TrEMBL record:
Subunit structure: Homodimer.
Function: Involved in the gluconeogenesis. Catalyzes stereospecifically the conversion of dihydroxyacetone phosphate (DHAP) to D-glyceraldehyde-3-phosphate (G3P).
Subcellular localization, as worded in the UniProt entry: Cytoplasm
Pfam families: TIM
Annotated GO biological process: gluconeogenesis; glyceraldehyde-3-phosphate biosynthetic process; glycerol catabolic process; glycolytic process
The gene coding this protein: tpiA
E.C. number: 5.3.1.1
Binding annotation for substrate: 8-10, 174, 210, 231-232
Gene3D superfamilies (UniProt xref): Aldolase class I
This protein's name: Triosephosphate isomerase
An annotated Gene Ontology molecular function: triose-phosphate isomerase activity
Amino acid sequence: MVMLIAGNWKMNGLAADAAEQVRALADGIGRAGGAELLICPPATLIPIMARALEEAGIRDRVALGGQDCHIAEKGAHTGDISAWMLKDIGCSHVIVGHSERRIDHGEDDDLIRAKAEAALEAGLVAIVCIGETEAQRQAEETELVLSHQLRGSMPSGATRENAVIAYEPVWAIGTGHTPTAEDVAHVHRHIRTVAEDFFPDDLRILYGGSVKPDNAGALLAVDGVDGALVGGASLKAEDFLAIAAAAKV
Ligand SMILES: O=C(CO)COP(=O)(O)O
């Protein structure tokens, strides 16, 4: 199975950065091996990146995605962006339920599931994020929390083609700390078992949280890891490509 290496730029990047990163991606794309590449820049940069990737001749190698979407197609929702709008500007994917949205914007599982279902309806692949906090980990509630988030936030009708699960332990995001390979294997096995209960397909499960060029090989080699969702290290094309190069083929 081809791995998906996804970059989440979060709220980073101006037009000049996008142009520079696309140039660097084009220069180094040969190093990415066979991995499927996706970048989710801030919404402001999506059309700029789409054009730049096209001009650089690598639009078919790098997919684009949003970082969030509204549940409705359109309407009076100031500041929001719909899945259909993302599709319209060239996105194929959208991240929903990232812990930063769950925490900063109080998003709950019901809302995230509705967003994921809107994404599917609009023809996007929904990347649904789940993950335990440090306190939940300390309380040994990881499996319980993940089961609950999975059951609550996965869209009905999820298939291998239209949905991806991203396991992102909140305590590993932006901290430089990562779970051990054994822990990642154990958690991914748990997620797969829960997901199998209600989806016929074997869904892709990405690992996210402090993935860097120097640990990508070890994390991506873990049984049950189908790719990575990369934050900080995706902002530099060189690092992003090095992570992609570490993907299993
Ligand atoms: O939140 C993440 C990706 O969505 C992970 O971020 P970092 O790779 O910066 O830890």
